[in-house]
User: Fold these one by one.
Assistant:
Number 1:
Amino acid sequence: MRILALLLLLLASPLSAQLIVPQVQPATSSPLYRSPSADAASAYITAGQDEPGYRAWYAALPLRSIQVKAFNDYLTTYEVGGIVPTWQLLRTATSWRECGAQPFEVPPLVDWPNVVQTLRYIRDYVVPAVGPVEPVSAYRNPSLNLCAGGAPQSAHQDFHAVDLVPMQPITREHLMSTLCEAHLRRGSDYQVGLGFYAFLRFHVDSTRFRKWGVAAVGEASPCRVTIAHTVTSTSPAVRLPSASSSAAPATPAPSAPQTALPQATPAVDPLAPTPTPH
């Protein structure tokens, strides 16, 4: 009777409950291992630079919790916290393991202001254009940048640059066309460099107005439009006026914190360009 009762209970249960099979995740050393997230960005993230890898890195040294909190507080102070998860901005280079480097690194304090303008542009014109994005590489110390094949003057070395991938499905052509259109409208105001790599990975920095890696797009794409005004200054601290605005003196960027604690929140940030309606 007990066996019969169990059989009847099984037949009465939902089919979905009967077909649950445990999922086996490949070992972290396997090239098939990916972040548990289901978004498109996971294909660009190596084992060790996913969330479990970050948690392990974070817990390895007590000082890291203090550094990460100070960096997060600094971003919040200048109203660029939460645009992307703070921990993702600490990713170094995709080839960190081959280079014997760390998968994550808190940039030097003096470089923290450099990413502020880059994040503003991501917030104001990248996310509205292509949806949520995930950083796959940001600060790279000079040794890692050299090993990873970065340009000698790479903007990643002083934390001006962030490499990103979209988290929602999108074609490469649409990604490039959409981002180029926004860049042509407002990139000069933010002094943004926009670059494209293979597949869906792209680069944003705030050193000077330029773009590259657009040879694969069609003749009608806004990426084909020549940028006539190229700013030679390498400082992201200067906001140049847009073509429609009157000339105004340059304003310095947020200063680097002198200690591990964030500075007071300014009442008004004159550096931030005013977004136009989308």
Number 2:
Amino acid sequence: MIYTLENDLAILKVDTKACEIASFRRKDKDIEYMWDGDARYWANRNPLLFPHVSAPANKILNFKGKDCQVNNHGFCRKSEFTFISKTDDELRFQLCDSEDTYKEYPYHFELNVTYTLKENRVYINYQVINREDGKLYFGFGQHPAFRCPLVEDKKFSDYWIEFEKDDVENRRLDLSYELFEKYPTYIIKNPQSRVFTLSDGENKVRMYTDDKYRIFAIWTPHAPFVCLEPWVNTIDKNDTETPFEQRDNIVLEKGEDYKIAYSFEII
């Protein structure tokens, strides 16, 4: 089911399926900024990456001494979230462990997601709570896909990404499909930047990231969209042996919670 937030500047729609943004539009420009999930290219839109980012090449992870078949980036993108509440500017959703999630990730958890619309900017806050009788291990990341080009008279190569700091030459990465033939996923580890702007000079998406995000990835499958992806951590695809608990993870003690956020505005 889709829930809507609206103000004088923008309209935001969020789907309980995967807790993805279904639409984010600016009223004065009548531009849709989000990818629509066209399955000819990529059926997702802006999935939450939990309880792991990426996956081993064989799609098997060892949890608590047991091998489990997993999906790339976890199960949130195929999960139905529970709608919790709505105010004039806020939507709240929740996902808890279930019989289905336990097959892929044998841990008890609670995941809360809050969307807040302020003017032309959406703030997305996450809370993971450990419901285990022991430690909880997990990874975390974002995968929002933005239409590129945003308007009909532009093409993909008319766009670039502006970096707040010197993470790339001249703080600017020009986009082209040739770039992603060379780097299928363009990855920057430990970026100095916390602000990243997708731009054609007139229309923009500006992303603001929490300092807990230690990786920034950019991806497109030669399609009319580009993903700007802040990750906390990721799994080495070539490592098919290391047990999940021994990998680079966020670790919570019993009853603890983990909070992280990011936001983006449409300009």
Number 3:
Amino acid sequence: MSGSARSVTSVDNTDGRFVIALTLAYNGALFHGFATQRRTLSTVQDRIEAALATRLSRKVEVVCAGRTDAGVHARGQVVSFNASESERPNASLLRSLNGLLDPGVVVLEARSARRGFSARFDAMTREYRYRIVDGPIPPLALSDFAWHVRKNLDVEAMREAAALLVVEHDFKSFCRSSSAEGRGTVRRVDSIDIVHRVELGEAYIEVRVVGNAFLHNMVRTMVGTLYEVGAGRRDPEYIRGVLALRLRDSAGQTAPAKGLTFWHVDYPEDVWL
């Protein structure tokens, strides 16, 4: 990590009057996920907490809006931490943090939030976007940010299938089996939009998913299941059976991490100071 280090105390001297929320963007290919690992692996949380500790001269622990797995990117991840009056965010904080952070992580915004605000628990909706490049020609500019499938996909069939996933369902079939043990698996999906887009001269299919919260691997498994429909291997009505069975093996593959980006989080307006 670049920048000169300052002495860091282990004392949290915040007065608890408010919270700072940072909006982050990062290239997931450079990290072993967002959350700190027991092993010595590079994570986004480690990098942002180290930069904050250097800038504020104290230990800082952040809470994120949603953990991302290794390889998953973000352009609107939000993290929060308790702050003191003297630490109110300003342009200097943004400059310092972006100077201290490793390549691959950027702080886009810093805001003051009310006392008790949590980037995780105060989130109303979360938005993820998944890129798929279909057809025989692989992407170049988007190679690290999209899943390349050689078969041309039927987007209309995928939209028909996606409509069956919207509203509140038990999504046990769409999450890693081990993560569902002893936990509730009902979630609300507000919308799934599947559109054609062009970025940096390369065409791709974007799957945009918005919901209140998501299970581990849920979005990637939804995409992998919609791929089965788009590739003509399954009928759109296949989704109904997958939801009813509540078995991970009934759904499609878990789509590769590199195609997924944590895009945006919505919060109530009254949380901001």
Number 4:
Amino acid sequence: MSNSENSEKIIEIDSFSEIKASESPRPRKGIYLLPNLLTTGALFGGFYAVLSGFSGNYEMAAIAIFVAMVFDGLDGRVARMTNTQSDFGVQYDSLSDMVSFGIAPAIVVYGWGMTSLGKVGIAAAFVYASCAALRLARFNVQSGINSGKFFIGLPSPAAAALIAGFVWSAQSLQPSFLLSSFSAFLIALTGLLMVSNFKYPSFKQIDLRGKVPFVVILSIVMSFVVITIDPPRILFILALSFALYAPAKFVWSKFYN
């Protein structure tokens, strides 16, 4: 067989390979629907909270933030349970968190009780919003390093729950100078806790598909019953207790160990 014939056969094989490669199915590009749909629900909750805050309906604004928390808690768990995690979902979730748990609480609490403080109120609200952005950026950077057993800094949904619970509890009151000053102090302190190095427990390791004792289900039911007695104040107390848990643990370890 001559060299020209060998060359022709090689060309034919290469052409056939190119045709088969072009005909082979390529992986479809897209995003997973269910977890990103839940993230969109969380984003809409934050968006609705901002609109309600602008219109002066602070009770609905606080409720919308708590609803956003529910959707935000579901999207990640659903993604892990259905094996539909993606880089797009991670980035989309961070942007949603910034709106729902960074911008919305700052706008709501400022409109409710800090406008009379002028630039001090604006500064306190901006401290919270900027700390929420820094906290989310740090979380994204450290997501591959952190074991997932704890959060470094107060999680932004818990911080938003603290602010929303406070506004919801006091929304019927006429903000005095003292109450406005306390609001500014609370939101600034909450923002600083988000960027602190305190370690807060993470509940991502809970296996929702596993079996649990009957008393666990009973405890969950009783928790819902207790919350329904006075949702604004009980949710505020729960969020405040969680926010103070890590600093209290740190102080205890320094002075009593």
